[in-house]
Structure formats: structure tokens, C-alpha cells
Write a structure and sequence with these properties.
The protein is mainly α. The protein has one domain.
Length: 182
């Protein structure tokens, strides 16, 4: 069962991720004040701040992901294991990549759709739609029937590609979209 149920963990990792709480804390603790300054919106500075914050949210989310991934690998071994030893590594790395993916995703949509107004209320319908679509896609992933190895490799590749695309989008668009809502 563990060799075919890895797609279920997309939904689980989405639920475990602390992305929305982290971005809300970022906004309430510093962004709502700093967004009034023009230097805060320079593309290079926005990207650098994004990278610093991304590293911090990844560190927060990696601990539960490492526990889950290690637990799954140990559970797979204890339940009889697998002949393909790569499945253990793919299982662990895929869970870690999912954690990184959701960290990147939540921070990216925060920067591109900055949902909060000066009173720290979420006012962006687009942001809520993207969050809902994320949960829906994660739920649909439970319908995917693939081996751990195949799904894991595809998931790892997608996470790497998503991280690159997110960085480019942040650099190009966040200086225009990362602003206070009225």
C-alpha cells in the first residue's frame, strides 16, 4: 500500500504546511509598515527578501516533513520493504520536496497577490480562489494511481521547476503587486 499511496501525501503535506500563518505573520509584523517605502519594492531587494523568507519558512516546514518522510520509509521497511531500494530514498525526498513546494507556493502567492489591507484583513478574492484551487488540486491528487518511484520522480522534478518559475515571477511582478490593499 505504501508503494502506491504517495499521492495522498500531497494533501497531507498541504495541510501540515504553515504557509498561510507564516505569511500572515510576515504582513502583520513588518510588511504592512514597510510597504509604504519605495526602496522596499526594488526588484533585486524584493527577490532577496523573498529568498531570505523562503529559507526561513522551509526550515519551519522541513521538520515535520522529515519526520513524516522518515516514518514512511521506516514503515515501508517494517512492513516487508521493497526490492527497489531507491523507493526508500524517493519516498523521503518526495515528502521533503512537497514541503519545500508548499513553502514556495504560499510565499509566492503572498508576494504576487498580497491579500491584506492596512488593517491586516484578507481582502483579495483572487488569493482566496488560488488557496481554494490549491486545496482542490491536492485533494484530486489522491485519485492518482502511480508507483512511489514514478510519482516521486515527477513530484521532485515539478517542485524544482516550480521553484525556478516562482523566483522569476517574483523578480518580474512582485515589485508591482506587493503593495498595500485599500
Amino acid at each position: 500500500m505504501l508503494l502506491t499511496f504517495l499521492p495522498y501525501f500531497v494533501f497531507i503535506m498541504c495541510g501540515v504546511n504553515r504557509g498561510t500563518g507564516f505569511t500572515r505573520a510576515l504582513f502583520m509584523n513588518c510588511d504592512h509598515s514597510l510597504l509604504t517605502y519605495t526602496f522596499y519594492k526594488q526588484p533585486v531587494l524584493v527577490l532577496k527578501l523573498f529568498q531570505i523568507r523562503l529559507w526561513e519558512i522551509i526550515k519551519i516546514n522541513l521538520l515535520p516533513a522529515a519526520v513524516i518522510g522518515t516514518g514512511l520509509a521506516v514503515l515501508l521497511y517494517a512492513s516487508g520493504g521493497t526490492e527497489n531500494m531507491a523507493n526508500y530514498g524517493v519516498l523521503l525526498v518526495t515528502i521533503l520536496c512537497m514541503s519545500v513546494f508548499f513553502s514556495v507556493h504560499y510565499l509566492t502567492i503572498y508576494y504576487l497577490l498580497q491579500p491584506y489591507n492596512a488593517a491586516t484583513e484578507a481582502k483579495s478574492a483572487t488569493y482566496q480562489i488560488v488557496l481554494s484551487a490549491t486545496y482542490f488540486v491536492c485533494f484530486l491528487m489522491m485519485q492518482v494511481k502511480m508507483t512511489t518511484f514514478a510519482f516521486g520522480i515527477l513530484c521532485i522534478a515539478f517542485c524544482i521547476l516550480y521553484g525556478i518559475v516562482a523566483s522569476v515571477l517574483i523578480y518580474k511582478f512582485a515589485p508591482k503587486t506587493f503593495k498595500l490593499r485599500i
